Amino acid sequence: MTSAPAFDQQIPASASPEVEFISLSHLNPSTELDPVPTRGIDLEYFRTYVRSLEEGGFDYTLLPYGSTTADSFVVASAVGQLTERIKPIVALRPNTTFPLVGAQKLATLDQLTEGRAVVHLISGGSDAEQARQGDYLPKDRRYARTSEYIDLLRRAWTEPAPFSHEGEFYKFDDFGPGFAPHDKPIPISIGGQSDEAFRVGGEKADIFSFWGEPLDDLRAEVERVHGIARAAGRTTLPRIWVTFRPIIAKTDELAWRKAHEYVARIADTFGKAAHGDRRARQGAPQNVGSQRALSFAERAELYDRALWTRTAAVTNAAGASTALVGSPETVAAAILDYVDRGADLVSIRGYDTLADAVDYGRYVLPLVRQELAHRRATGRRGTLQAEHPGNYGEDYRRFATAGRA
């Protein structure tokens, strides 16, 4: 059993006062639990999914990008028209779109959605996947390209007169002024765990994203990126985005029954390479984030209040894959643990994608927001974290190991 941290009602100095929630939009019913061979968009499913995010109180949705996926810009534009409030996050690889064109497309999306656009720049974690669309830069130079890309996006959105540029990766003459966003520059997010990712993110990004890690490890990484930002002279630090795959049920015991069933099905899916494009996910992963996730999984399956790493182990840490397991109250308390460490953007997406999105909106988001409202009103923490110990209590550990295959 993990030792319980001392709990009192004092709000930690590192705690974020607010949290916004992110999901990932799914285009069809295929999941890691029940893979459906398809390369297409199920329009009715997609409409239902996006509507469920809006109704459930999510703030953002990520539109992922891969060499075999739908185009993230086009899908983001559809999200903008299907919703009134959700902010679409366009995942964009700099090698696929010239920066001035990217700035134009993002500003167009921002105007169509009245200021809701966000961009998440993916430098590229796999040489093989990058090569599928003609990108042969080594990984360290990809982050250098991202750095130059960020500068050009912001100049295209803000320069009042034409400008020219000759850099390491891009060259042009007499551009602009570019097409403007709705009312202010569009937030730029990046992620990654390499030294190059931290340098670029700390110096230039508005948002820095992490996968779910043990609390102390994540806090050290947050301090690292914020330290780089301060050293660069920044007074506004990058916001912190952390991603989990929660598995919830009415009680902790039922959630663990579901978790053990899920992980067996997920392992079977990945063993058969039956969900999506697995070519870039075979063998040892190249990106540091996946390497860290597998290292945590090798060390232990359970961390802190509810972090479970076995889902990362059986998927070779293919993308965001660490879970939070428990009742809605236990998972909400675990999310608050991360908010207390500085996370203010929390991405939660499930394995039963549509049903989980609905359940999170009904049962998890309100609990987290209720606690944060209590903090604002009283200046003190509420009792949710104290009353739902998860892995800090004996019963939870028993539930976690009872169904272990």
From TrEMBL:
Query: Luciferase-like domain: from which residue to which, for each copy?
Result: 37-344
Taxonomy, superkingdom: Bacteria
In terms of Gene3D superfamilies, this protein maps to: Luciferase-like domain
GO MF term (any one): oxidoreductase activity, acting on paired donors, with incorporation or reduction of molecular oxygen
- State the UniProt keywords alphabetically: Flavoprotein, FMN, Monooxygenase, Oxidoreductase
The entry's protein name is LLM class flavin-dependent oxidoreductase
- Source organism (scientific name): Saccharothrix syringae
